[in-house]
Design brief:
single chain, Glycerol-3-phosphate (1)-acyltransferase, 266 residues, globular, eight-stranded mixed sheet, alpha/beta
Length: 266
Amino acid sequence: MPLLILIARLRLLLVGFHILSGAFQAAVLFRLGGARWRQHLTRAWSRQLLALLGIRVDADGNDLARIERGLLVGNHISFIDVLVINALLPSAFVAKSEVAQWPLIGWLSRQTGTVFIERGSRKAAHHTHQHMRQAFDAGRRLAIFPEGTTTAGDTLLPFHAALFQSAIDAAVPVHAIALSYHAAGGARSAAPAYIDDISLLACLMSVLQAGGLVARVTLAASFAPPLPDRRHLAHRAHHAVAAALARFDSAQPPTQPRRNEAAIRR
């Protein structure tokens, strides 16, 4: 067996143990404190798991740390996107209902406040909307991937507008985030892409064998209430993310995020 594959498999074992430690934290340690304590644990756990996967987060030059509330929207490449965002801004995510059935991951998602999208009826959509409103009313951050699926990172699909409505109704800011994975030399990497029929295990092995990756993250734009209608808002967020991804490709350092005229109320 090649040495690199052996090392990757040994690191995969460590990843598995770390995921189990996350279950312990969610079951026991989460109960010892409030929301900020849980955010601290989530941030630390996510950073540690990224380190085990050999992924370094490059978020220099943006003011993500200033975001305290609202809706985060961004492009979607991999389940690792969740770790990257949580390493910076611990958030509750909106995910498809199938995730709730994943072994261990589904349970962890429920413990961290994930809002699951129930598809197939207007009533289900109303329930999702209500759960998101309740999260916003409680002052929580929510994150969504409005493309509705993952890509290899070389394209940006249209943003579905429906989930933007909850932020509009709750009058909370919307923050557009761009994320891209790169090899050590700077070229875009598709190693983390969770697409087609690839399994979770195969995706993890792909990342571990990549030899070190950089996750680049930037705040592309923020939109403060009063917000435009959801289709216009989705279009503007999509445009901002696309522009930020283009800057990644051109190897230019991210510029300061753009904002609308109103101050972002946090």
